[in-house]
Amino acid sequence: MGELVVDKHVKYILSVEKRKDSFESVVLEHLRMNGAYWGLTTLDLLGKLDALDSNEVIQWIMKCQHESGGFAGNIGHDPHLLYTLSAVQVLALFDKLNVLDADKVANYISGLQNEDGSFSGDEWGEVDSRFSYLAICCLSILHRLDKMNVEKAVNYIASCKNVDGGFGCTPGGESHAGQIFCCVGALAITGSLHHVDKDLLGWWLCERQVKSGGLNGRPEKLPDVCYSWWVLSSLIMIDRVHWINKDKLVKFILNCQDTENGGISDRPEDAVDVFHTYFGVAGLSLLEYPGLKAIDPAHALPVDVVNRIFFQK
Ligand code: GRG
Ligand code: ZN
Questions:
Q1: Residue 242 domain flag
Q2: What is the per-residue pLDDT across 130-143, written as a single tens digit (0 to 9) for each?
Q3: What was the ipTM of the complex prediction?
Q4: Residue 175: phi, psi to the nearest 5?
Q5: Rounded alpha-carbon distances, angstroms, from residue 121 to 111, 112, 125, 147, 225
Q6: Exposed site from 41, 75, 235, 292, fewest CB < 10 Å?
């Protein structure tokens, strides 16, 4: 088994950032804000955030802000909670939260809370426990959790809990590791983890590890590097990470690297992309792989960035 090819991954991310007219960039145009978060957080975990011109990125981010206060995936697109959290996270990486009118962003977010405590992702109204996480994480980073009804938000998330200990996208929705990350993360940030049955959920989550060492997102599904984030971060937040075989998972992630051109894929031999490169590196960071910055499992930002936000106001 090889090692993490840090320099190759840095090169890969910088090249994707530059190739704005590549196939991947065109297809993902509306998601560019998320791409910026995935790529830049990976660079920071690898200790190479300074390889990029931060002023250029910050100027572009601010051009994606809508008059409502929310952020879009790219200039001229519509705002959504998905892009608003990514924008705030990237500004936090660069220690530039001060360029924001935090109350304006917070008003956009709290305006999306519904009577039952749930959140819509944007003005069109789709409801999903993912959006509860996005709202809670973002308001937490902005020190504006008091702008929403936290008690109702927590009760809604608790209503998405299933008899297997997991969480779905709405009440009654099937448990899925991605949704579990969102619900556990939101409960962790609001100090409400007592709503989780840690042993029951820990059991469901550790059963996601398959023979190859990789993790899947639901029973009977294929393993995928992104679940190294969704499953592992949840296990850490509920103190049950020792229930999986960490060495085998490290090997699975390293096997998904393109050791020639950099980047990480969803499973061995597939094509690499920025999304799975981020989840592979973030997963290795959670596994305490040497040489990587530590990442906070709830806020999905490097621990030093989170400490700067909460302890050095
Ligand atoms: C800040 C890290 C971070 C996230 C923001 C958007 C979001 C919050 C979370 C998304 C959670 C989620 C639902 C992730 C799942 C993504 C995924 C791989 C879905 C695929 O599901 P299936 O069922 O594929 O199509 P499987 O793997 O089950 O075959
Ligand atoms: Zn995936």
A1: yes
A2: 999 999 999 999 99
A3: 0.96
A4: -65, 135
A5: 11, 7, 6, 17, 26
A6: 75
Domain extent, residue 283, equals: 6-311
Whole-model pTM: value is 0.96
Going from the Cα of 311 to the center of ligand 1, the distance in angstroms, rounded, reads 31
Mutate to test the pocket of ligand 1, among 90, 139, 182 (most ligand atoms within 8 A of CB): 182
Please tell me the distance between residue 217's alpha carbon and the centre of ligand 2 in angstroms.
Answer: 9
In a domain, 63, yes or no: yes
The reply to whether 1 falls in a domain is: no
Give all strands (DSSP E) within 157-226, no chain letters: none
Residue 153 belongs to a domain with what CATH number? 1.50.10.20
Give the closest ligand to the alpha carbon of residue 297. Answer: 1
Q: Which residue is associated with the tokens 């220690």?
A: 95
Residues 6+ apart with CB under 8 A from 127: 114, 118, 119, 120, 121, 170
Contact 21, 15 (CB under 8 A): no
Pocket test of ligand 1: the residue of 84, 86, 131, 176 to mutate, having most ligand atoms within 8 Å of its CB, is 176
Spatial separation of the C-alpha atoms in residues 180 and 200, rounded to whole Å? 13
